[in-house]
Design brief:
heterodimer, A: mainly alpha, MetI-like fold, two-stranded antiparallel ribbon, 2 strands, flat, B: alpha+beta, Rossmann fold, OB fold (Dihydrolipoamide Acetyltransferase, E2P), 2 domains, 5-stranded antiparallel β-sheet, 9 helices, elongated, binds adenosine-5'-triphosphate, binds magnesium ion
Chain lengths: 292, 363
């Protein structure tokens, strides 16, 4: 009896890992292909892509494509721009959207149900439909900068950051999470003399680790992958993000090896960020034990 | 320290009235217990005292300040919740010191006060643990520790022990009693547990549907309940109610009887009756005793016995079909189906000028 149970358990575990490994492989193959291709000259790359050799570091392997990519485009500048834009947006968004979520989920005020539905309604509007009106607005918006009042936000960092700070999905995630936190915790903090700000900063946010990580990853991916909007609002090289930089490699004849090298380089920050957050995510669940 | 005074306090949620005009005076240092059926507004009342819930109308006075509009932090109250509500991301030390951290107390002073609270509650060895590593009783201790460090003038407890098992409950009940003596603070305590109410309280407040039915010392309420609700609510097993006819009135001696209960004279104060009308006779199970047929004033058949060791509970069906519960001291053996005579101590009987409704029976 026990023996068969054990065997069954083992078999089940084996099948589970097999399935997970297959799924992981499906997701990792494009990455392997990208990195391997970036090490090969263009011609070999095209020939290899017809066979399994595409996933193996074989043939004429070198870092030449990387050197060429740096010669062709200011890679460092683009990555730095993207990291700046993404970083500022993620942090500002986590802060503002969590405050909005806090207000809707915890505080009592008239009309908040209506406000929440309005926020949720924005989820159904794709960015493409508002891109042009937003462009027209941005071109005329005022700003107080170093040289006093200026008009127009085009060719700046702020035009790539500010429109993306507040978003319905992030607010909704925080609303849901805060609603699930036992009301007694909030009241206990209030009874101990905490102000609403302290309830937010000392009780709710420290417990919101998992949702902060989730929202941060979603926002990071959206912002790091920005293409259409910067294409519309940025003409100066100095403010360009990574994906727009990809255009530099699609002139006259496309050097696929260089494209792969460029893509490999701009993927690194995403992986680092993801791994870092995954750790934080697991740590926060383990330490608070709020959920599950 | 502080008195707590409620003057015609009302609370409505939308159009529903939950608290319907409560007047109450709780003296400085008094241990007051709120009891009442589920949904009668005990928690709401407590939360209004804490400042967690707005007051619809009336005055709430703590110490000598009207606190209606004050946020919780300006009321000098602390609250202990049924769910403990300790912060899962903080250690025991941080939890206990939370109020002091909020008040920006200097670190040395805070450490000292946290240590002292931990000593009083005997959990110095747990200070660096996280709540997830504590048992239910230990968590409740942390919640109490958090409440006492700020030295509030009023402590509010909302069913603090109801998530604990029976043995732990008894320990914690005694500890809360001790704490009250040590701190001498005003405490207001909500419970469903009769024993907690009777043993801890200086004053019990019985609530029903958002109104105070009676407030007073535990024994006062037990022996002199103002109405059927209070009579039925306090005491376990609940008081027996029998509808009787008023036969004769001589001063404050009222003679009553019904089909099952022979003529009995009861001494009554403060209520008036009219001959020929109906009234309710209230008999506590503890004051009923078994008697020979000729000395007894009612006869019945035992339909159920429960032997608890210290006493035996008998469920007796009377000749008119109604049921009497009797609690007989000591462990005695009775047989189901056995016919017995019952008698009671007329001085301990109650006569009410109202008739029982379903909600006044056992709760
Ligand atoms: N925020 C609210 N909105 C509407 N009704 C409420 C709200 N809070 C409480 N009530 C209602 O007020 C009544 C009293 O609730 P309360 O929690 O004070 O009861 P209670 O006496 O503490 O009951 P229990 O013994 O079950 O804890 C209940 O009928 C409840 O449904
Ligand atoms: Mg309650």
């Amino acid at each position: 009896m026990t023996q068969t149970y054990l065997n069954n358990d083992r078999l089940r575990l084996f099948v589970r890992y097999l399935v997970l490994t297959l799924i992981a492989a499906i997701f990792i193959f494009p990455l392997v292909f990208m990195v391997m291709s970036s090490l090969k000259p263009s011609q070999q790359l095209l020939i290899d892509s017809g066979s399994l050799r595409a996933f193996l570091p074989v043939g004429d392997i070198s870092f030449d494509n990387y050197a060429a990519a740096f010669r062709r485009a200011p890679v460092g500048l683009f990555v730095a721009n993207s990291l700046l834009i993404t970083g500022v947006t993620v942090i500002a968004s986590l802060f503002l959207c969590s405050l909005a979520g806090f207000s809707i989920a915890i505080l009592n005020w008239r009309g908040k149900a209506f406000v929440l539905s309005a926020i949720l309604a924005t989820l159904t509007v794709p960015f493409e439909t508002i891109a042009v009106p937003l462009l027209l607005m941005s071109s005329k918006l005022p700003w107080i900068g170093m040289e006093g009042l200026e008009l127009g936000w085009l060719n700046t960092y702020r035009v790539q950051i500010i429109p993306f700070i507040a978003d319905g999905l992030t607010i909704f995630l925080f609303v849901q999470y805060f609603r699930d936190i036992p009301k007694d915790l909030v009241e206990a903090a209030r009874a101990e003399g905490a102000s609403w700000w302290q309830v937010y900063s000392k009780v709710l946010m420290p417990l919101a680790g998992p949702i902060i990580a989730t929202a941060a990853i979603l926002k990071f991916l959206v912002m790091y992958n920005q293409y259409l909007w910067p294409l519309m609002v940025v003409q100066e090289e100095g403010y360009r993000p990574v994906l727009v930089g990809l255009q530099y490699f699609f002139q006259l004849n496309t050097a696929w090896g260089e494209v792969m090298a460029y893509l490999s380089m701009i993927t690194v920050p995403v992986l680092v960020f993801y791994l870092f957050l995954q750790r934080a995510f697991i740590a926060s669940i383990a330490s608070t034990g709020v959920k599950g | 320290m502080a008195d707590v005074v409620l003057k015609n306090i009302r609370k409505s949620f939308g159009s529903v009235d939950i608290i319907k005009g409560v007047d109450l005076e709780i003296n400085d240092g008094e241990f007051t217990v709120f009891v009442g059926p589920s949904g009668c507004g005990k928690s709401t009342l407590l939360r209004m005292i804490a400042g967690l819930e707005d007051i619809s109308s009336g005055d709430m006075i703590i110490g000598d300040k009207v606190v209606n509009a004050l946020p919780p932090k300006d009321r000098s109250v602390a609250m202990v919740f049924q769910s403990y509500a300790i912060f899962p991301h903080m250690t025991v030390r941080e939890n206990i010191g939370f109020g002091l951290t909020i008040a920006k107390t200097p670190k040395a002073e805070k450490d000292l006060k946290v240590q002292e609270a931990a000593r009083i509650l005997q959990m110095e060895h747990l200070l660096d643990r996280r709540p997830s590593q504590l048992s239910g009783g230990q968590r409740q201790r942390v919640a109490i520790g958090r409440a006492i460090t700020r030295k509030p003038e009023v402590f509010l407890f909302d069913e603090p022990l109801s998530n604990l098992d029976a043995a732990l409950r008894m320990d914690m009940r005694m500890e809360i009693g001790k704490l009250h003596h040590q701190l001498g603070a005003t405490m207001i305590y909500v419970t469903h547990d009769q024993v907690e109410a009777m043993t801890l309280a200086d004053k019990i407040v019985v609530l029903k549907d958002g109104e105070v039915m009676q407030a007073g010392a535990p024994m006062d309420l037990y022996h002199h309940p103002k109405n059927l609700f209070v009579a039925g609510f306090l005491g376990a097993p609940s008081m027996n109610f029998a509808v009787v006819n008023v036969e004769k009135i001589e001063g404050d001696q009222i003679t009553v009887k019904n089909d099952a209960i022979a003529e009995t004279t009861v001494h009554v104060q403060g209520r008036s009756f009219t001959v020929g009308t109906k009234a309710t006779l209230g008999l506590r199970p503890q004051y009923l005793s078994i008697a020979d047929e000729r000395d007894s004033c009612m006869m019945g058949t035992i339909v159920l016995t429960e032997r608890l060791g210290s006493e035996t509970i008998l469920n007796i069906k009377l000749s008119d079909g109604s049921t009497m519960i009797a609690a007989i001291a000591d462990d005695q053996i009775f047989k189901i189906g056995q016919s017995v005579g019952l008698t009671f101590d007329a001085d301990r009987a109650h006569l009410f000028d109202e008739l029982p409704s379903a909600s006044d029976a056992a709760h």
